[in-house]
Amino acid sequence: MQTRTSPEHIVEICRRLHARNMLAAADGNISLKISDDEIWITPSGIAKAFMSPEEMSIINLEGEILKGKPSTERLMHLEIYRSCPKAKAVVHAHPVTAIAWSIANPQLLKIPSECLSEVILACGDIPFVDYARPGTSDMGTVLKSFLPSHRALILRRHGAVTWGEGLEEAYRGMERIEHSAQVLATAQQLGGLHPLPQDEVKYLYELRKKIGETLL
Question: According to the model, what pLDDT value does residue 6 have?
Answer without folding.
Answer: 86
